[in-house]
Amino acid sequence: MGYQINQDKMNAILTELSKKYKIYGPRRYVGDGTFAHVDTIRYGEVTTLDDIEFKEKSNYSFKEVLLPISETLFYFTENEMKEADAPHSGAIVFLRSCDLHGLKRMDTIYLKNGAVDTYYKRLRDNTKFILMGCEDSFENCFCVSMGTNQSDDYDAYLKIDGQNVLIDSHWDLLDTALAEMPEIQVIPDAVSQNKTVVEIPEAIPQSVIDSPFWEDYANRCIACGRCNFVCPTCTCFTMQDIFYTDNGKAGERRRVWASCHVDGYTDMAGGHAFRDNKGQRMRFKVMHKINDYKKRFGTQMCIGCGRCDDVCPEYISFSNCINKLNTLVKEEN
Amino acid sequence: MLDLNTKKIKKNAYRVTKVRGETASRIRVPGGLLTADILPIIQNIAETYGNGRIHLTTRQGFEIPGIRYEDMDAVNALLQPIIDKLDINQEIPGKGYTAAGTRNVSACIGSNVCPFANYNTTDFAKKMEKEIFPNDLHFKVAFTGCANDCIKARMQDFGIIGMTEPQYEKERCVNCQACVKACKKKSVDALTVENYRIVRNTEKCVGCGECVINCPTRAWTRSTEKYYRLVIMGRTGKRNPRLAEDFLVWTTEDVIIKIINNTYKFVENYIDRSAPGGKEHIGYIIDRAGFSEFKKWALDGVDLGDKTIVKGPVYWSGLHYD
Amino acid sequence: MTDINPYIPFLSEIKEVIKHTDIEYTFRMTYSGNVNPGQFFEVSLPKFGEAPISVSGIGKDTVDLTIRRVGKVTDEIFENYVGDTLFLRGPYGNGFDIQNYLDKEILLVAGGTGLSPVKGLVDYFSANPKDTKGFTLLVGFKSPKDILFKNDFAKWEDNLNVIMTVDTPDDGYCGKCGMVTQYIPDIPIKNIENAVGIVVGPPMMMKCTIAELIKIGFKEENLWISQERKMCCGIGKCGHCKIDDTYVCLDGPVFNYTKGKFLRD
């Protein structure tokens, strides 16, 4: 159902909702960027619409709401383990269409690939998603190529329209709160083209996987992992056991985000590593995003948000890599 | 027949050169940053009254050689739009620069461009210029964005080195150790890992910001407050060239401005009036008056705050030729 | 189903510790669920972390975990004795399915600790020799002091063709020497078209052995390998063991060579 409401009233509804849900959206963190006087836009708790950055692409995705960067799994004493409490019992997340498609990728890994992940599920089950439209494409976006520029799989769509807010609700709780408001038709803003267009090769022959093509990245990539950390579809983690210094017998096991570009990702106990070469790490990531995932689960993994291209300090372009790969595959065939 | 007061000429930012009858005009550019529209004005002066050449000075100004002494008034008139555009304090409009002792306040490119800079060096340099110029006392002040010290702040009477106090949000840390590696290889090795989290040795940390720059998850960010290392009394010269030593660490903009203003009073009081040209470097004055006396004057009425570390007594090394 | 938290381990008691070498012990642990040879458990030590350890033997209500001391977790495991308990998660992975090898000629080639994940198979066919048309165990160790499962070999030799070799002999060793690959051509195989080869060991050893088996006529679809990778979660989430579209922890570690040969790390 579509509604029009003024911002004050919508903020009052958010305040009401915040009693049950933690509300997360892309926020501007002034001066928190890599360099002096540079801001970061990343996910954080919001209380009013003014807290949400609608005009720019967030540098980091929403994934940290469902998969915290560092998440305690359980606490232990010598012979006992106690599951950690969830960071929230319910959440509302403001996000764009590409990220909403990213959510499905997270669901696939955490709910379907092997056992159900208790920690993900308990957050996911009680989270509502509010779509933010895109009137224009941002730099490096290639959502249209990936088919993620549109989504109707939201609990609500919300658009700031001057002093008003336009809402399309798929959520009964919100419908109830908006019951008195004038009903209008609201269609989410979505871009229909991006400046960046990628063409993904249909089938990538083994010769391309083994090709010297990847060597170019071996001395360009610095293995910082930024591309993975900003990606809404990168969901790898590593476990850490820590003990409390004041009580050596107690501690916790937690998981933290991991990156297939960062050293140590494939290291086994005893020291053997499988991808020392950074070009091979690039191959591993690219193949995962545009080939391997699809082979296993039927859809492409990459959602075309372009954050990896936005963030790479060495100006390695993932989207251009796909296109170069496509050319190479055509030449091979 | 030239009949000149060379002392007045020098104070007007002209040089008495080796070429009889010719002077050179020095243009100050605080912070070393100017808009491109100023360049044609400089070009015009050089081509109209100079010999068509322009020298780039070590302090980030321009020097236009080959000007006839009798053209100084005309050149001063042409300098006015430059002085206005760069917002230089001026006692008598139209008469050019009204002092030269306090040198152009220079700065590295800073946070407008450089990824390492911890603050906007240009802005601070301009602010300092407004505070201390014009003044005939010989003061050299320079601003550098980080501990790399590209402007050579340690060769100045006052060098201001940018610092940030790294803020660590442990819940955003993935223990990739990019910060640890950067600090070890590019800075002072102040970071260690304990229980998969980073521990910063606050004694060692120089506030360079490498951890912040290299952090891929924003676990490390910059402090809202800008901090500075104030290094003092570096100098070149014949008798005892030396690098500036730390005076204050983790200090603030207000404190630095106050201290430099205070130092003018100290110099007024202690300068050797019989020195050649009435010109004596501050460092030699401090050598004579004693560091503790300088410190008393410099910190007069200064609220240092809790964070600032005051070094002292400060001893300088360097080369001694006397 | 979702009530079970797959990350929380269970307690298992150490029933027996069998010392093979200074740095390789087998811990016989209580466990009564279903388990296949070649599957693995995460041995989970609070404060130290987890280590994936393959099942090297299956008894009634026990599993054997043969552990090599190579890191902080395994070092800590070695501090435990009979009667102590360890936390475990698992079993994970597919393991070896006996059905794939029944009534066939089998050549099992193992290198060093690679014997652990296949030892359950050797035990099975040693106990049920009529289930195979001929079983050769070809196993190589670095040196005599690295030999694992010494006490089992005598038993295996009763029913199976066992060839053990070491890379570098020491004084007093009088067995076979050299790489496993040099013994492959002499192994009597009646019907190579249908013979099954199982290869587990260090990456180079596996590569050379497989090349040799194919050279003497083994069919690729009759070759099986077990891949060792970094494991963290064991349940298809953490991503560390992924190769191409394969999660070693879910789809492996045992692969038919027709799939295994395409895996690119």
From TrEMBL, chain A:
Question: Which NCBIfam families does the annotation name?
Answer: sulfite_red_A
Arranged from A to Z, the UniProt key words for this protein are: Iron, Iron-sulfur, Metal-binding
Tell me where in this chain the 4Fe-4S ferredoxin-type domain is found. 210-242, 293-321
Q: Which organism does this record belong to? A: Acetobacterium bakii
Q: Is RNA-binding among the key words of this record? A: no
Q: Which SUPFAM superfamilies match?
A: alpha-helical ferredoxin
Listed transmembrane segments = none
GO-annotated molecular function? iron-sulfur cluster binding; metal ion binding
| Protein name stated in the entry | Sulfite reductase subunit A
TrEMBL record, chain B:
Q: Highest taxon of the source?
A: Bacteria
Q: Name a GO CC annotation attached to this entry.
A: sulfite reductase complex (NADPH)
Give an example GO molecular function: heme binding
| Pfam families for this protein | Fer4, NIR_SIR, NIR_SIR_ferr
Q: Which residues form the 4Fe-4S ferredoxin-type domain?
A: 164-193, 196-225
Q: Which Gene3D superfamilies match?
A: 3.30.70.20, Sulfite Reductase Hemoprotein, domain 1, Sulfite Reductase Hemoprotein,Domain 2
Q: Which GO terms describe its biological process?
A: sulfate assimilation
Membrane-crossing residues?
A: none
Q: Which InterPro entries match?
A: 4Fe4S_Fe-S-bd (IPR017896), 4Fe4S_Fe_S_CS (IPR017900), NiRdtase/SiRdtase_haem-b_fer (IPR005117), Nit/Sulf_reduc_fer-like_dom_sf (IPR036136), NO2/SO3_Rdtase_4Fe4S_dom (IPR006067), NO2/SO3_Rdtase_4Fe4S_prot (IPR045169), NO2/SO3_Rdtase_4Fe4S_sf (IPR045854), NO2/SO3_Rdtase_FeS/sirohaem_BS (IPR006066)
Keywords (alphabetical) are: 4Fe-4S, Heme, Iron, Iron-sulfur, Metal-binding, Oxidoreductase
Q: Which family does it belong to?
A: Belongs to the nitrite and sulfite reductase 4Fe-4S domain family.
Which PANTHER family does its entry note? ANAEROBIC SULFITE REDUCTASE SUBUNIT C, SULFITE REDUCTASE [NADPH] SUBUNIT BETA-RELATED
Q: What is this protein called?
A: Sulfite reductase
From TrEMBL, chain C:
Q: Which UniProt keywords apply?
A: 2Fe-2S, Iron, Iron-sulfur, Metal-binding
Q: Which residues form the FAD-binding FR-type domain?
A: 7-98
Tell whether Metal-binding is among the UniProt keywords.
yes
According to the record, how does the cofactor bind? Binds 1 [2Fe-2S] cluster per subunit.
Q: Which domain of life is it from?
A: Bacteria
Report the source organism. Answer: Acetobacterium bakii
Q: Which GO terms describe its molecular function?
A: 2 iron, 2 sulfur cluster binding; flavin adenine dinucleotide binding; metal ion binding; oxidoreductase activity
Q: State the InterPro entries in the record.
A: Cyt_c3_hydrogenase_gsu, Dihydroorotate_DH_Fe-S-bd, FAD-bd_FR_type, FNR_nucleotide-bd, OxRdtase_FAD/NAD-bd, PyrK_electron_transfer, Riboflavin_synthase-like_b-brl, Sulphite_reductase_B
Q: Which CDD domains match?
A: sulfite_reductase_like
Binding-site list for [2Fe-2S] cluster: 233, 238, 241, 249
Which lineage do the record's taxonomy fields give for this organism? Answer: Bacteria, Bacillati, Bacillota, Clostridia, Eubacteriales
**GO BP, one example?**
pyrimidine nucleotide biosynthetic process
Q: What is this protein called?
A: Sulfite reductase
Q: Does the keyword Iron apply?
A: yes
- Which co-factors does it depend on? [2Fe-2S] cluster
